[in-house]
Write a structure and sequence with these properties.
This protein is α+β, with helices and mostly antiparallel strands. The chain contains 16 helices and ten strands. Helix 3 crosses helix 5, helix 12 crosses helix 15 and helix 12 packs parallel to helix 16. The termini are far apart.
Length: about 475
């Protein structure tokens, strides 16, 4: 049986399964997803390859996915479900759900005993998706065999089936796909017929057009079977290609992707091909963007991202959460004190910079708030010395404290904040250099900014007497 034949058969068998069911194009999308996950033969050259029993079962499991594009993912999850109690003597000693269903398709006696097969990818346990139950009759006795995820070790022990309740699931609502005996009888009949009278490939193979296009794209972008991409968003106004393309920079190769309605401009580095760690790759990206900024005299802000994809993946536009309220009340006046006005302005700019990945500017502005009353370095350091202990000792807010203490090393925290942070970002000092292209330096400054923001808030609140309540008059 060929994949195209199976696609037609499953579409027909599922025709009465719901009010609306898969169209041939929906089923084609399921098979495309299954090929993408390696559950069916891949490539136009393999369209005439006969399917194994395991591949046919994978296509059946792919029907469980509500959305056709998730068929491969769902089939992969369900395929390796293990029997509750561990014993599957009646199913030829099947080790997994896949083996049990293969046995149903190949053994007529077992097939005739089937009452139903119930499959679901709902959450059976906490963060554990997928379960199945085969109900069958032997000697006029109705029995059932359930399958659960591999990590449910206690349920896979001998005798666990005696007390197992298949209806107890973690998900309060779960969708199931139920196959009865007639489904398996009809499918087995079609399999036997196809194998007895092999046919050449059906149609023109247009179902592989999308796969061929994707293979050409991967070749064009330098993707290999061992690729592992770092995907980073870049908010910029520098000259950028209008279509995705592979470019060379120094000894490295990047993929650049343009901005779209849903995605920001992005840069993608194959860590394996370029022999880079994530930290080193981020530094190389920063060096590249620094040169572009210089050449174009336009901005380029590196945003966040992730790594691990086998192909470059577009980076979605940032859609940050924000606070709303049904009844918005704000009763504040412009502060009369020029010092307060300046402190709040600096805080806003520092907070904006921190949020938008301009961390050096954030660090500098947070410290400049303290310098409103303490211009001399010795005075500002003393203020930090006096006010840092409550921040470091705040048990309700210990985020990043341990990393900050580790970064200080042998230096006193107040000295580290002044020299390695404030002076380092404000001056091109050989003694205290700060290179904002270096990934490790940026991470260090982000960590310091967390502490310096709390110091700035303490100064505005305690020294300038500014309340952070939206309902009182500012100092």
């Amino acid at each position: 049986m060929l994949a195209k034949q199976l696609s037609y058969i499953l579409t027909e068998l599922c025709r009465s399964s719901d009010v609306t069911t898969d169209t041939p194009s929906d089923m084609e999308q399921r098979f495309e997803s299954l090929r993408g996950y390696g559950r069916l033969p891949r490539g136009r050259e393999n369209r005439g390859q006969a399917l194994t029993n395991e591949q046919i079962v994978a296509a059946v499991l792919g029907l469980v996915a509500t959305l056709p594009g998730w068929a491969g993912h769902v089939a992969t999850i369900i395929a390796q479900l293990k029997p509750v109690g561990g014993r599957t003597d009646n199913f030829g000693g099947a080790a997994t759900l896949t083996h049990a269903l293969v046995y149903v398709l190949t053994d007529k006696t077992m097939r005739n005993s089937i009452v139903s097969v119930r499959l679901s990818v709902a959450e059976s346990g906490t963060n554990s998706h997928g379960f199945a139950t085969i109900i069958y009759e032997q000697a006029n006795v109705r029995r059932q065999l359930s399958f659960v995820r591999d990590e449910a070790l206690s349920l896979r022990q001998p005798g666990a089936e005696a007390s197992f309740d298949a209806e107890q699931r973690n998900a309060p609502v779960s969708r199931e796909l139920v196959f009865n005996q007639r489904f398996f009888a009809r499918l087995a009949q079609e399999i036997d017929k196809a194998r007895a009278h092999p046919m050449p490939p059906i149609d023109d193979g247009s179902e592989y057009d999308k796969e061929d296009a994707e293979n050409e794209r991967r070749l064009r972008l330098g993707v290999t079977p061992s690729s592992r991409f770092l995907n980073i968003g870049v908010d910029n106004q520098v000259t950028w290609p209008r279509e995705e393309m592979l470019i060379e920079f120094d000894n490295y190769k990047f993929v650049l992707m343009p901005k779209t309605k849903e995605h920001v401009q992005s840069i993608h580095v194959d860590l394996h091909a370029n022999r880079l760690s994530v930290d080193t790759a981020m530094t190389v990206i920063n060096r590249f963007l620094s040169l572009l900024t210089w050449c174009d005299d336009q901005y380029a802000v590196v945003q966040d991202g992730w790594s691990g994809n086998p192909v470059p993946v577009p980076v979605s536009r940032r859609n940050l959460a924000f606070a709303t309220t049904h009844q918005w009340v704000f009763n504040r006046d412009i502060p009369t004190s020029h010092e307060v006005q300046r402190a709040l302005a600096l805080y806003r700019e520092a907070r904006n910079a921190e949020q938008n990945f301009m961390i050096s500017y954030a660090v500098l502005n947070y410290y400049k708030i303290i310098e409103i009353h303490h211009e001399l370095g010795s005075n500002s350091r003393k203020w930090v010395t006096d006010n840092l202990p409550p921040i470091l000792g705040d048990l309700n807010n210990q985020e990043d404290i341990s990393r900050f203490i580790e970064a200080c090393g042998a230096e006193k925290p107040e000295t580290y904040i002044y020299k390695a942070c404030r002076v380092a970002v404000a001056h091109a000092s050989r003694a205290q250099p700060s290179d904002p292209d270096e990934s490790t330096e940026l991470r260090r400054l982000h960590n310091a900014a967390q502490i310096m923001r709390r110091l700035a808030r303490r100064f505005i609140s305690h020294d300038l007497g500014v309340s952070d309540s939206p309902f009182v008059t500012c100092g």
